[in-house]
Design goal:
By secondary structure, the chain is mainly α. It contains eight helices and no strands. About 40% of the residues are buried. InterPro entries: YczE/YyaS-like (IPR038750).
Length: about 210
């Protein structure tokens, strides 16, 4: 029973994370830094945003290892499998947005941005509480948060990595995709929102022990 409930929470959080990222992409006001890096990679490679995000998660895993985060082989396999599913979910949700509706009105785009950032914050809050397997990017976020003893500061340091990737691509492309006010709000606000949602959302796993 415990595993069933935990798995349901876990699937919900990953789906919500991908959906939140797709809302930010659809808003076109600036995506999450890792997603933006994926968008910029997709602009120079013949692959989708989701696949690029999977590749970036591989990079995040390597960086986490360099920060002396220890992983078992099972954790690596599970986390990369999760990254693969997450990337595909983003592609599916972005495709659905294009089929259903992409907002042009600035206020609707701002609403999409607000929804997206909060969805991602709730999703991260949930699966951090579950202590289940995380996305590689989230292992890196946790590593920086522990290093700085603060999610807000840790988020800023962590997100500077994909931003650097986007800027590196800009040097050759002279065109940036997915960077904007939404990116800044995400970087400054995600840690704060995670802290707040950690107080609002408390998953009592002990009730599922039996």
């Amino acid at each position: 029973m415990r595993n069933t409930h935990v798995n349901l929470w876990f699937v919900f959080s990953i789906t919500l994370n991908a959906l939140g990222n797709s809302f930010m992409i659809a808003a076109n006001l600036g995506s999450a830094p890792w997603t933006s890096a994926g968008q910029n990679l997709a602009s120079i490679l013949p692959i989708s945003i989701g696949i690029c995000i999977i590749l970036l998660n591989c990079v995040a895993f390597i960086l986490s290892g360099l920060m002396k985060i220890k992983f078992t082989l099972a954790t690596v396999i599970k986390s990369m499998s999760l990254a693969f599913i997450f990337g595909l979910f983003i592609d599916v949700f972005v495709y659905m947005h294009h089929i259903i509706y992409i907002p042009d009105n600035i206020w609707l785009r701002c609403l999409y941005l607000f929804i997206g950032i909060n969805f991602v914050a709730v999703a991260v809050c949930i699966y951090f509480q579950l202590h289940a397997v995380y996305l590689p990017c989230d292992y890196l976020l946790q590593a920086f948060a522990k290093l700085k003893q603060n999610y807000t500061v840790g988020t800023i340091f962590c997100m500077s990595i994909p931003l650097s990737i986007s800027m590196f691509i800009f040097l050759f492309q002279h065109h940036l995709t997915g960077l904007g006010v939404g990116t800044i709000l995400f970087m400054l606000g995600l840690g704060f929102l995670i802290d707040r949602y950690n107080h609002l959302i408390v998953i009592n796993k002990t009730r599922y022990i039996n």
